[in-house]
Amino acid sequence: MKTKIILLVTGLLLLTGFFGTSKQALSERNVAIYEKALSLEDTIDTGFSGYVFSAVPVRFFAGDADYVRKGDTFVKQKPLFQVLAATALLHEGNYTLIVPTVEMMEGVFSLLSPPDTQYTDTLHAAVLWHEGFHAYQLENYENQVTALPGCGAEDSAFQPADANEAARALFMDGLKALHQAVNEEDPQKIRTYVKTFVQLAEERDALLPEETQAAERFKETVEGTAYFVEMRATEAMGEDISAYTDLPAFYTNGPGKYYNSGRMMWMILNKLDPVRMESYDFSLPLRTIMEEIAKE
Description:
Helix content is 54%, strand content 10%. It is α+β, with helices and mostly antiparallel strands. Helix 10 (257-272) crosses helix 12 (286-295).
């Protein structure tokens, strides 16, 4: 049961029909990426003071082997999880970050992404922070995360939202309201935008089955906060974060869009109630908190 839960909080799950052949040592490029991620600890404000990236056990998956962090080096071991995925997995009593090597990720992205899309070392370092945050979530809030409605939902749960044209339009309108709230400084105006978002979300919920509503709220909460952490890591490396912060030009199918809506909800909570943000324990979906704010 725990393994299934971990798969469903994966920030990136890429099933493929091939695996590479690993070398005797982890490449210097991957080591440098990991060290870069470590160097960000004193510069990133995630809003979760208990999240210490260096404390998360790490395994780089390279096809027929994992490279496991042991002290200041990486040791080659038998892979724990023979699917190409960036994820958090319970191992030896601790939630462990498992991430493919940057070379493997590049290969998959070249097959699945548009020609002008590149998988960079910077993105890989940010993904380490994102997936490490999932390990932190489950290490510290497993009972709350697994009790959230929508935990355990299959990808098919999102299909009714993508198939309904009215729901698609309402989602994009709601995303615009969230974007306006994130880019506003006046608390009263922020609340007005939140009320607009909640009204649109309620209209949309009326078009969707309860299973879909719950799955969306779960993704927004668990992945939205991790996506915020990923954005902060990218920003700390001096990279352009417009890919995170720009309003999407069009609707996209699948659960990825909830990463962005959840990220914005988390940022709105930070603006309006930073004290509540600091004590957030994943016992409530972020959407529920938006609904509470709308009523205030």
